[in-house]
Design goal:
The protein is α+β, with helices and mostly antiparallel strands. It is 15% helix and 39% strand. Strand 17 and strand 18 form a beta hairpin.
Length: 276
């Protein structure tokens, strides 16, 4: 097996590296879910499996379709994939795979089923610069190559930084300039991959939100009053479009504060401004 690149210090703890299927897909068996890669339908043998709402695919078959070489180290129980400047090492039974030498964190571990290694679909795809989405009408997973503007590694770095910033809600480098209380909601897979009012592509796994009037890129600390948990989001869209609500959070932001399971809830908004 190729020599593994030296680990970097940072550990990227970002749960949404794993593809989370919508509730409707989670209820279906893996055999009932189609997969399209670059508009071509693929059937993998053995079939993908679903673990805790996440799809796992046979590693060798999936990576080879995307043009990567796959190796297996039986002694260490580590599956590796290589393509151009990307090296991915995935230990079986571990939620700490490596990409280009940096240790990542995923929610569902790779596992061996009938002597085949299965890995989380979203993580596997994005490592090689592909995007994963869900097509409601086709009941299908769609895997397409990204736009090339940001490679997968840069995306993971950006997402990890946003999550870290979100967890540091009381960072002293920011000051509160205004406060508002009201009802919040969230939006996710239905809009994932679509354009926002700011011109960005909506990413349900990023810490963002929609607000009716705040300027785009404004940072807002949102505290869910029921749980007391808080997260910092960046405004990049307009909404909510339901009367009486004051902010619409991304799936990831709502999950971070415990709002996702509730659907809607009372929150406190604190508009932040960078200290001089």
């Amino acid at each position: 097996m190729k020599q593994r690149i030296h680990k970097v210090c940072a550990v990227l703890l970002f749960s949404f590296f794993v593809f989370l299927l919508p509730a409707c897909a989670a209820e279906a068996s893996a055999e009932e879910i189609s997969m399209y890669i670059e508009e071509r339908q693929y059937t993998f043998v053995p079939s993908p499996v679903i673990r805790e709402g996440r799809m796992l695919v046979p590693m060798r078959g999936f990576f080879e379709v995307l043009g990567a070489e796959v190796e297996w180290c039986g002694e260490q129980r580590v599956a590796s994939a290589y393509r151009e400047d990307v090296e991915v090492n995935i230990p079986v039974g571990s939620t700490a795979p490596e990409m280009n030498g940096a240790e990542l964190s995923i929610e569902v571990a790779a596992e061996i089923i009938n002597e085949r290694t299965f890995v989380p679909l979203r993580f596997a795809a994005e490592c090689l610069g592909y995007e994963v989405s869900w097509h409601e009408e086709k009941q299908a997973v769609i895997v397409n190559e990204g736009d090339g503007k940001t490679n997968a590694w840069e995306k993971y770095i950006k997402e990890a930084e946003e999550k870290e910033a979100g967890e540091k809600g009381s960072d002293e480098s920011w000051k509160v300039v205004s406060t508002q209380r009201g009802e919040a909601s969230w939006y996710g897979s239905k809009f994932h991959g679509r354009g926002t009012a700011s011109g960005e592509i909506f990413d349900m796994y990023a810490y963002t939100a929609a607000h009716r009037t705040l300027p785009f890129n404004t940072r807002v600390r949102v505290t869910f009053l029921q749980t007391g948990r808080e997260v910092v989001v960046r405004i990049n869209d307009r909404g909510p479009h339901v009367a009486g609500r004051i902010i619409d959070l991304s799936w990831a932001a709502a999950e971070a504060i415990g709002l996702r399971a509730c659907g809607v809830g009372q929150v406190k908004l604190e508009v932040l401004e960078k200290n001089p």
